[in-house]
Design goal:
302 residues; alpha/beta; Arc Repressor Mutant, subunit A; D-Maltodextrin-Binding Protein, domain 2; seven-stranded mixed sheet; 11 helices; 11 strands
């Protein structure tokens, strides 16, 4: 059945691992931690893989190395295979499993970290939290370098799957020192007469209303960064209601002309992960339940 695959040398688990490590780091030097012996080994192993498959697996450029189309496909197959072996080994040794979970900076700090820290300490699962943008999350879910994620996108490319677990309203905040009354703040916001700080990355998802024509004076990488800038009392901003709930010294109101603007939260995973390890479904379901309960506790459903 596999006679041709093993009829010549050049294919091995070590070589496949070297390809994955170089592909993930973007260079042989980084993958080898600047160890010249390992650099030479990785370079040789990648060359042997390319000779074995008779295709180019990497494109070399000034900044490092990037997987080619063939390289990405081989990396996907190899990662799936090695993850399967790793899961089998953990099962045989009765070892704990570590899951990587990602979300935006705000979601990691405000939702994921509190939920995971509240899970029973007797659980055999371990978790690693990783802040990441939605584009990176989608790519890494496909690559199986992430296990789960909390995202605000309404759709991801196949075969990735999503489950809606909550919503948050978007509200405007204007420092009271800038506008004497709430009605004046609404009017100034609607007429674009305010200096604004906006978390443009976390407001960029297609599940969020397009805020056409609003040009911020300051672009923040997260709602939490926008919140820090807001405390200077020099800017207005847009935040999810669960971040705005306890703020004082600010006028709060729905976004003018977009009063129903919301963020929808989805739990995301790759179903291939479950095929590698069916027991992961229990962890997925536990996380979905705990995250849904957390969002409800934040009074997101209004």
């Amino acid at each position: 059945m596999f006679e041709k695959l093993f009829s010549e040398s050049g294919l091995s688990l070590d070589r496949l691992r070297a390809m994955l490590e170089v592909g993930a780091s973007g260079s042989i030097v980084k993958a080898a931690n600047s160890d010249p012996v390992r650099q030479s080994q990785y370079s040789r192993q990648i060359k042997e893989l390319e000779d074995f498959f008779r295709v180019k697996l990497f494109e070399r450029h000034d900044k490092g190395m990037q997987l080619t189309h063939h390289g990405r496909e081989l990396a996907r197959i190899s990662r799936f295979f090695l993850l399967g072996l790793s899961n089998f080994q953990r099962g045989c040794l009765s070892e704990d499993q570590t899951f990587r979970i990602a979300g935006s900076t705000t979601l990691v700090q405000q939702i994921l970290a509190p939920v995971l820290s509240a899970l029973p300490t007797t659980m055999s699962n371990r978790f690693i939290l990783e802040p990441a943008a939605d584009d990176e999350i989608e790519r890494r879910l496909h690559d199986l370098t992430l296990d789960f994620a909390l995202v605000t996108r309404s759709a991801l490319s196949r075969p990735l799957q999503l489950k809606e677990i909550g919503k948050a309203k978007l509200v405007c905040l204007v420092p009271r020192r800038l506008q004497a009354t709430r009605s004046a703040a609404i009017k100034a916001f609607a007429n674009k007469e305010l200096a604004l700080v906006l978390a443009t990355r976390e407001l960029s998802g297609p599940s969020i209303v397009t805020l056409a024509g609003i040009e911020p004076n300051l672009r923040a990488d997260s709602f939490l960064s926008a919140l820090i800038a807001l405390e200077s009392q020099r800017f207005g901003t847009i935040l999810p209601d669960f971040l705005a709930a306890r703020l004082i010294r600010f006028w709060q109101f729905p976004i003018p002309n977009h009063s129903a603007a919301k963020i929808t939260f989805h739990f995301a995973w790759n179903p291939r992960l479950l095929r590698l390890n069916p027991h992961v479904a229990r962890t997925r379901d536990l996380l979905i339940s705990a995250l849904t309960e957390k969002l409800q506790a934040l009074q997101i459903h209004k």
